[in-house]
Amino acid sequence: MKNNEKVTTIFALGGLGEVGKNMYVVEHENEIIIIDAGVMFPEGDLLGIDYVIQDVTYLKQNENKIKALFITHGHEDHIGGITFLLQNVNIPVIYAPRIACDLIRNKFADRNVNYKNLEIYDKDSVFKYKHFEISFVTTTHSIPDSFAIVIKTPNGIIFETGDFKFDLTPIGPMADIHKMAALGSEGVKLLLSDSTNALSPGFSASESCVDEALSDVFAKHNSRIILATFASNIYRIKHIVETCRKNNRKIVTFGRSMETAKEIALKNNLITDKTIFIEPNEAKNLKKHQICILCTGSQGEPLAALSRIANGTHKQIELIPDDIVVFSSSPIPGNRASINRIINKLYLKGVKVYTNTELSDIHTSGHAKQEEQKWMLRIIKPQYFMPMHGEYRMLKTHGDLAVDCGIPKENIFICKNGDTVELTKDGARLGKRVQAGDVYVDGSRIGDIGSVVIKDRKLMSQDGILVTILNINPLTRELLIKPNITTRGFVLVNENAELLSKIENKVSEIVVKAIKNSYNYVDLKNQIILELNPFINELTGRRPIILPVIMEVRENI
């Protein structure tokens, strides 16, 4: 580093090497701006965990530098972590597009968050700080009011795409390609670009294709149509409303998030016909071909409306054999098995199921595929490139696409969360790492569920739990009666009397030997676990969680 060289530092606290929990940070001297604060939904191995969020230790340590949090759009992987962030870090102001603001306010209300400094920005907004000038470029995505963010710094322009695609026949506004091109001509130092679909060749299908495909499904059938999609895909909901209007169908919505999306769409005039929505009891007076049920559960979530419908546990909807169920969505990684279970249950009920295939475009992604990613690279013409928003293989492939588009390989940064890129007047380089990692949200508890707890939950789910209750006289240091063994998820007590008897005898042996030498609760419990674990494993090939419970009894039993 040259003497008195002022660097601009860019890094991610979430969103690199993963799809979700997006959070990107730009720092120059005494100023920090943050872009997005999302959550990641846990994989199946994170038992009991509701969300995964960012480790914001660095932001907490540099809280006085933070100027604002900027939100690119209103999806959960970009706004879902805001309420958790505010519990740990003071954010002076949050700027977000109109739809995202509505969604964030709902989150504040749900979690009783009293935060007043939430402000709306639009495509013409500009925010100036000592070292930064922030402006916005309209993009196309699956939710209205999606933006890329332009950060002008003392060391060059940073362009962060947000989630985007290039759709030449969109439902909402076109991406502002002219503004992007003007920035490219001005000179962009560093591009951060969405890598979600970097493994998919070609162009993403237009939303208008989905409109046509859904219209075909509606035109073919006179049965009741049950349609599941992402509640956050407000453009898709707008499609469905238009399709139902053309086919003289009324819509009944089920699922809390779907109700919220509907209300926000109506409030912002994205949907103007309120009369198309009816209450469930009103649907009883209509014929089957006049009804569309719009619900949550496209990812097979066990508590979502579609799952309850398929299971026959929904209080207001009962499937009938000629129902049509449409999944206007694609499986999120890790959800395919859950979706398939729901589909099988639906087929068993005698209904017809439509899913997205190469032959049926009833869903399209809101993320750019390879050719669109190349187009972004060609338009912006960055000097340096940092792929973002994707698993490592996606980031790496996106980096390879950038090489194909003429960016030198040495100018491409394939980073992990916590890696820093430093911009200088003369170029860019990797800097020192900052603290980054996963924080687990379990109900109302944040951050106090670590890897040890997760490991114990996995063990309990696999091998069960064994509790041994000991009655000990602390005065005489005697085990008064044989240990009482209780198990859950390990073996059936009635069918394994001999095994449990051997375990009881082994525990008795361990306790009698241990309390002769020394006696304290901690040492005794540890000794039981230490010796009993290999003993049970040898007998059964399993390692249940062992919980010794010591009861002090000062009288003979």
3D structure, described in words:
- With 557 residues, the protein is α/β, with parallel strands linked by helices.
- The protein folds into three domains: 8-202 and 365-446, Ribonuclease Z/Hydroxyacylglutathione hydrolase-like (Metallo-beta-lactamase, Chain A, 4-Layer Sandwich), CATH 3.60.15.10; 207-354, Metallo-hydrolase/oxidoreductase (Rossmann fold), CATH 3.40.50.10710; 451-552, Ubiquitin-like (UB roll).
- The chain is 32% helix and 23% strand.
- The protein is built from 16 helices and 26 strands.
- The chain has an eight-stranded mixed β-sheet. It has a six-stranded mixed β-sheet with strand order 8-9-10-11-12-18. Strands 14-15-13-16-17 form a five-stranded parallel β-sheet, with helices on both faces.
- A hairpin with a 2-residue loop joins strand 21 and strand 22 (445-446).
- Helix 4 (98-110) crosses helix 8 (256-267), helix 6 packs parallel to helix 7 (234-246) and helix 15 packs antiparallel against helix 16 (521-540).
- The protein is globular.
- The model has no long low-confidence stretch (mean pLDDT 88).
